[in-house]
Amino acid sequence: MRYRYDGSFEGFLCALAMCLEAGQGEGEFLRPDDDGQGGLFSGAACDVATDMETALRFRERFVAQVSRKAFATLRYAFHSEAAGVENLLRRFVAAGLEQGERLQRMLAVEPIASVYRLSRKVAHEAHRFTGFVRFREVSWPAGEGEEQGHASERPTVSFLYARIEPEAHILPFIASHFRERLHDRPWMIHDLRRSSLVLCDRGTWRLVRGVSLASLPGLTADEEVCSRLWRTYFQRLAIPERHNPRLQRSLVPLRFRAHLVEFDGTA
Amino acid sequence: MNDLPLEQRLEILADSAKYDVSCSSSGSNRRGAPGGIGGTSAAGVCHTWTADGRCISLLKILLTNTCIYDCAYCVNRRSNDIPRATFTPDEVVRLTIDFYCRNYIEGLFLSTGVIRSADYTMEQLIAVVRKLREEEHFNGYIHLKIVPGADSLLVAEAGRYADRVSINIELPTRRSLALLAPDKTREAVIAPMRQVSGLISSARAERTRSRKAPRFAPAGQSTQLIVGATPESDLEIITLSEGLYRRLDMKRVYYSAFVPGSDDRRLPALPVPPLLREHRLYQADWLLRFYGFAAHELLDEARANLDLRLDPKSDWAVRHLHLFPVEANSADYEVLLRVPGIGVRSARRILVARRHARIGEPELRRLGVVLKRARYFLTVGGRYLGGIRLDGAGLVARLLAPERRPARLDQLELFPAAGDASALTGEL
Question: Are A250 and B421 in contact (CB < 8 Å)?
Fold first, then answer.
């Protein structure tokens, strides 16, 4: 049987619940963008509606039978968006419902080991990005004014805007970290790879999918000053006698540098 | 000297601050408060790494690099002809908040040269952090330097605002201190450390009774030792660190390879900073704190220095081959931790996984245990993983053998394993 879900974690839980209920060993999960060209004999895909209630009920059931921690592992691993992760997780969940809390000790048994590995990878990347996100103070709307000389009379809002290109879908894991820290300041983190962003204003955040910005928001004057000071500071803090670019490269791999203010253009 | 533009003063004061190696933003967990900005997370967060591979987690800066002392090892010594600059408290506060909002940093690490007197200098530092905490409601991490010799009331006040405080010992022995830092005495350094240690433990005890009791440096205290400026052996250094960890409940001792920069005749003429020695000291330090080793197990009078070729744990294991191999399915946690190549994470995973089923070599691999070194010290289900049993010398040769990738001939590789880097960055 093939299940098409909306690509969200909640949607996946609903599809998973349906698949397990059907009691069939196998199941295939399709995201909306998959064209679903399975084999010659694969049947039509069943569209799964995303229902918060169903997802929550499923979560409760899994937490009760296995553990809260195992559910967190499942959630992290799902957001790796690795190819075939849905099937891996179906087996993980099936094993969990069968083994109960013993699942947590099956670290060295496939496919549990793979799920844990994926989950660790995503958690690690999320932690890394709590450090690597670089906010820039921008004013909006920008671009319309065009010529710098005549700024339009319309009021502009300034807020903090960051761009990232992480391997996994880590936005849901880092949003509350930044909400807590920046408080009443409005901010936005834009995942360019997934065209998703997290918006936060007055202490609540939400995830928006399928966003593309028509124009780049313009940096404020303060931002230019502040980022220059930061670059200066960053350059100065290295001790020339200890120069070790290889170590630096293993700690800040090149792929992260495009959006790091202090590496601007040196990547 | 305050007429210089902010950017230039930032350059000067960053230059003066960079030799302090403390970098961590860990040990304190505080949620943000309404109306304020920032919070801290227990594990700390590294934000970036400079061209020398050291992490930036805090805005590490001096309030001023003017100093009345003349310590031979220090760039900011009175007799050194360098540009001097000073920040106003407002400037430091502004920089911290601006950098923090943009997520460049986890907080502030404020240190300073000593001006007028220890008390006066300490008051200046406290003025900055008080402003940050009380006026800007800054909840991020603050690491504050304690000026040796400052009044105990000022020390007590500093810890109310700071997450972590530190007093640098810099030189391991009284003799070296007298030689290179004639203005400082050992007592002036140790006494405030003792006081801080007492205040930390009493504040902790108070807080178990009442949640409203004031905090005192919840992330503890740290210190720093300079390595290679004076003739102390690794044994003396590691023994000192062990004492600091055990008796003063120190959170971290940092080691800083001495960067020669002065032609003072009291200092050795080193061609390059002893980076590899520093790295080995950090590894030994980790063994003391997380692996249950004691200083006397790693070094003794007969071998007073760490082997630079081999990491201290492998070195210890090779000298204690009669204790190995150990069985992955039954060895205690403490025993597993002593196997070269097995760290805290691997050991914990092995413990969990073997409760479910017996472990073999493929299981170890699935757990993510790196067998490169560990295989020579392990059996699984009675089977030795290292192939032919080797004696000490043969094993050392095997452990030192380069992997397939040929060693580079032009430059000595100081940090061959990426995993070792955490020792340098202060993660964990």
Answer: yes
